[in-house]
Amino acid sequence: MRLSDRDPIEHLILGYGFRHGSTTKIRAVHHAIGAKQQVQLSGAMVAEPNRHAAADPRSGVVILHNHPRNIINNLFDSLPLESNTDRKILKNMALNPVQICRRRSGAGRILFHLGEDGFVRDFRWPQLATILNAAGLILRY
Q1: What is the mean pLDDT of residues 93-118?
Q2: What does pTM read for this prediction?
Q3: Per-residue pLDDT for 13 more than 80?
Q4: Closest CA relative to residue 126, chosen from 96, 95, 93
Q5: Is 105 exposed, middle or buried (0-12, 13-18, 19+ CB in 10 A)?
Q6: Which of 52, 68, 54 is nearest to 114 (CA)?
Q7: Buried-exposed string 19-50: b where 16+ CB fall within 10 A, e elsewhere
Q8: Do residues 67 and 9 make contact, with C-beta atoms less than 8 angstroms apart?
Q9: I need a labelling partner for 125 at 20 to 30 A (CA). Which of 6, 85, 98, 104 fits?
Q10: Where are the domains of the chain?
Q11: Topology of 11-134 in CATH?
Protein backbone atom coordinates (compact mmCIF):
# COMPACT_ATOMS: atom_id res chain seq x y z
CA MET A 1 0.00 0.00 0.00
CA ARG A 2 1.25 3.44 -0.85
CA LEU A 3 0.50 6.30 1.57
CA SER A 4 0.22 9.46 -0.47
CA ASP A 5 -0.77 13.07 0.05
CA ARG A 6 -2.94 12.52 -3.03
CA ASP A 7 -5.13 10.00 -1.17
CA PRO A 8 -8.54 11.56 -0.50
CA ILE A 9 -8.63 9.85 2.91
CA GLU A 10 -6.64 10.06 6.11
CA HIS A 11 -4.29 7.37 7.38
CA LEU A 12 -2.75 7.01 10.83
CA ILE A 13 0.22 4.71 11.30
CA LEU A 14 1.71 3.83 14.68
CA GLY A 15 5.16 2.26 14.59
CA TYR A 16 6.39 0.48 17.73
CA GLY A 17 10.09 0.02 18.24
CA PHE A 18 13.13 0.77 20.33
CA ARG A 19 15.44 3.73 20.53
CA HIS A 20 18.71 3.07 18.74
CA GLY A 21 21.05 6.07 18.94
CA SER A 22 19.25 9.03 17.41
CA THR A 23 16.59 6.93 15.70
CA THR A 24 13.85 4.43 16.54
CA LYS A 25 13.98 0.98 14.96
CA ILE A 26 10.38 -0.09 14.25
CA ARG A 27 9.37 -3.70 15.00
CA ALA A 28 5.54 -3.61 14.71
CA VAL A 29 2.93 -1.37 13.08
CA HIS A 30 -0.74 -0.43 13.50
CA HIS A 31 -2.46 1.18 10.50
CA ALA A 32 -5.88 2.86 10.55
CA ILE A 33 -7.58 4.02 7.36
CA GLY A 34 -10.09 6.80 7.79
CA ALA A 35 -12.36 9.10 5.85
CA LYS A 36 -11.71 12.46 4.20
CA GLN A 37 -11.65 14.48 7.43
CA GLN A 38 -10.94 11.93 10.15
CA VAL A 39 -9.46 8.61 11.12
CA GLN A 40 -10.79 6.51 14.00
CA LEU A 41 -8.37 4.74 16.32
CA SER A 42 -9.26 1.27 17.55
CA GLY A 43 -9.14 0.56 21.29
CA ALA A 44 -5.89 -1.37 20.78
CA MET A 45 -4.32 1.62 19.00
CA VAL A 46 -5.25 3.89 21.91
CA ALA A 47 -3.90 1.54 24.60
CA GLU A 48 -0.81 0.10 22.90
CA PRO A 49 1.52 3.17 22.88
CA ASN A 50 1.46 3.48 26.68
CA ARG A 51 1.69 -0.31 27.18
CA HIS A 52 4.60 -0.47 24.77
CA ALA A 53 6.34 2.49 26.42
CA ALA A 54 5.98 0.92 29.88
CA ALA A 55 7.47 -2.42 28.75
CA ASP A 56 11.05 -1.18 28.21
CA PRO A 57 12.86 2.12 28.88
CA ARG A 58 14.16 2.16 25.29
CA SER A 59 10.75 1.61 23.69
CA GLY A 60 9.47 4.30 21.36
CA VAL A 61 6.46 5.03 19.20
CA VAL A 62 6.48 6.83 15.85
CA ILE A 63 3.16 8.27 14.68
CA LEU A 64 2.55 9.27 11.06
CA HIS A 65 -0.71 10.98 10.17
CA ASN A 66 -1.55 12.33 6.73
CA HIS A 67 -3.99 15.09 5.86
CA PRO A 68 -5.51 14.81 2.39
CA ARG A 69 -5.27 17.75 0.00
CA ASN A 70 -7.73 20.54 0.59
CA ILE A 71 -8.40 23.99 -0.84
CA ILE A 72 -5.71 25.65 1.32
CA ASN A 73 -3.14 23.12 0.05
CA ASN A 74 -4.13 23.94 -3.51
CA LEU A 75 -3.71 27.70 -2.95
CA PHE A 76 -0.53 27.66 -0.87
CA ASP A 77 2.51 25.43 -0.72
CA SER A 78 2.43 25.22 3.07
CA LEU A 79 3.99 22.99 5.68
CA PRO A 80 1.59 20.56 7.39
CA LEU A 81 -0.63 22.17 10.01
CA GLU A 82 -1.76 20.11 12.97
CA SER A 83 -5.48 19.92 13.69
CA ASN A 84 -7.09 20.11 17.12
CA THR A 85 -7.44 16.32 16.99
CA ASP A 86 -3.70 15.96 16.24
CA ARG A 87 -2.92 18.13 19.27
CA LYS A 88 -5.27 16.06 21.43
CA ILE A 89 -3.70 12.77 20.31
CA LEU A 90 -0.19 14.07 21.05
CA LYS A 91 -1.29 15.45 24.42
CA ASN A 92 -2.90 12.14 25.44
CA MET A 93 0.02 10.00 24.26
CA ALA A 94 3.07 12.13 24.98
CA LEU A 95 2.22 14.93 27.39
CA ASN A 96 1.86 12.97 30.58
CA PRO A 97 4.31 12.72 33.53
CA VAL A 98 5.68 9.30 32.53
CA GLN A 99 6.42 10.32 28.92
CA ILE A 100 7.87 13.68 29.96
CA CYS A 101 10.29 11.95 32.38
CA ARG A 102 11.22 9.38 29.73
CA ARG A 103 11.97 12.13 27.20
CA ARG A 104 14.02 14.17 29.71
CA SER A 105 16.07 11.09 30.65
CA GLY A 106 16.90 10.19 27.03
CA ALA A 107 14.79 7.02 27.05
CA GLY A 108 12.47 6.01 24.23
CA ARG A 109 10.02 8.63 23.07
CA ILE A 110 6.83 9.27 21.14
CA LEU A 111 7.45 11.04 17.82
CA PHE A 112 4.58 12.55 15.82
CA HIS A 113 4.91 13.33 12.10
CA LEU A 114 2.33 15.01 9.88
CA GLY A 115 2.17 14.50 6.14
CA GLU A 116 0.38 17.05 3.99
CA ASP A 117 0.80 18.65 0.56
CA GLY A 118 3.91 16.59 -0.23
CA PHE A 119 5.68 17.64 3.00
CA VAL A 120 6.31 15.75 6.24
CA ARG A 121 6.85 17.72 9.43
CA ASP A 122 7.74 16.81 13.00
CA PHE A 123 4.90 17.89 15.27
CA ARG A 124 6.04 18.70 18.81
CA TRP A 125 4.77 20.47 21.86
CA PRO A 126 6.68 23.65 22.66
CA GLN A 127 9.33 23.54 25.37
CA LEU A 128 7.95 23.86 28.93
CA ALA A 129 9.67 27.23 29.39
CA THR A 130 7.90 28.56 26.26
CA ILE A 131 4.50 27.43 27.61
CA LEU A 132 5.15 28.95 31.04
CA ASN A 133 6.42 32.19 29.51
CA ALA A 134 3.35 32.47 27.25
CA ALA A 135 1.14 31.94 30.30
CA GLY A 136 3.03 34.69 32.15
CA LEU A 137 4.35 32.26 34.76
CA ILE A 138 8.06 32.90 34.26
CA LEU A 139 9.43 36.01 35.89
CA ARG A 140 12.19 37.85 34.07
CA TYR A 141 14.70 39.81 36.10
Answers
A1: 75
A2: 0.72
A3: yes
A4: 95
A5: exposed
A6: 68
A7: beeeebeeeeebeeebeeeebeeeeebeebbb
A8: no
A9: 6
A10: 11-134
A11: Cytidine Deaminase; domain 2 (3.40.140)
